[in-house]
Amino acid sequence: MSNRAVLEVIALDEEDAVAAQTGGADRLELVTDMAADGLTPSRTGFTAIRAAVDIPLRVMLRLSDGFAAGGPQGVDALVARATELREAGADEFVLGFLTADGEPDLVAVERLIAVLDGCRWTFHRAIDRTADRDGLRKRLADLPGLDTYLTAGAATGVDDGLATLKAEAARAGEPGYEARILVGGGLRLDHLPELRAAGLDAFHIGGAARPQGWAAPVSASAVRTWREALDA
């Protein structure tokens, strides 16, 4: 991948994936069931998308809405799905779980990354719901494979998280801040100049790639608009 800004697009199926790649996406986040804010796709769904495009795919590991892993049984189910997806060839993932008091669920995360066996992964927007962002980052800092945080800077979205995103970008390279910030969650084109000026260089879109809503597929032209804005 070049040094240009990264554009990641949510894909639900092969049609989405092909349109996103055609429009200039660098990477896809694969999910199913956006009514539950994005859950783990099936092995069949992954293999179909992998056959349809040649850009990197990050596969969501999440079996229910919210940021809880679901206790021991939920973690067992996640491990089984992760194992199945690894066997199918998946080599990049998205995950992140919190305890009831808003702390990182290290038991769940560490069990999953043991199965991922060195694969690169994103800690998703659970960071925007944690009780202590800085503490979470420092507790996760040494986990193998973690290279990205998907975050809006605030639970309510980028509008409210701009100051946090810029402050965290300014700490890049410090302990706990080595992983790349992938901005997503209510992200709009008009946010880009301020974010780019702050040094942020990775962006994630879902609904913005679907002008006709989640019932419609990804629009290659919508993705291209974002690609051109990032390249300008």
Describe the structure in your own words.
Belongs to the CutC family. It comes from Streptomyces zaomyceticus. The model has no long low-confidence stretch (mean pLDDT 96). Helix 1 packs parallel to helix 2 (43-52). The relative contact order is 0.15. With 232 residues, this protein is α/β, with parallel strands linked by helices. It has helices at 14-23, 43-52, 71-87, 106-116, 133-140, 158-170, 192-197, 220-231, and strands at residues 6-11, 27-30, 57-60, 92-95, 120-123, 146-151, 180-183, 202-205.
Which band does the percent of strand residues land in?
Answer: 15-25%
Strand order of the largest sheet: 7-6-5-4-3-2-1-8
Spans of at least 5 consecutive residues whose pLDDT stays below 50 are none
Quick check: average pLDDT?
96
State the share of residues found in helices, binned by percent. 25-40%
Number of helical regions: 8
Query: What is the general shape?
Result: globular
The major β-sheet equals:
8 strands, parallel
Order of helices and strands: EHEHEHEHEHEHEHEH
Total number of strands:
8
Taking all Cα atoms into account, the compactness measure Rg is 16 Å
Q: How do the helices and strands line up, and which of them pair or pack?
A:
Elements: E1 6-11, H1 14-23, E2 27-30, H2 43-52, E3 57-60, H3 71-87, E4 92-95, H4 106-116, E5 120-123, H5 133-140, E6 146-151, H6 158-170, E7 180-183, H7 192-197, E8 202-205, H8 220-231
Parallel strand pairs: 1-2, 1-8, 2-3, 3-4, 4-5, 5-6, 6-7
Helix pairs in contact: 1-2, 1-8, 3-4
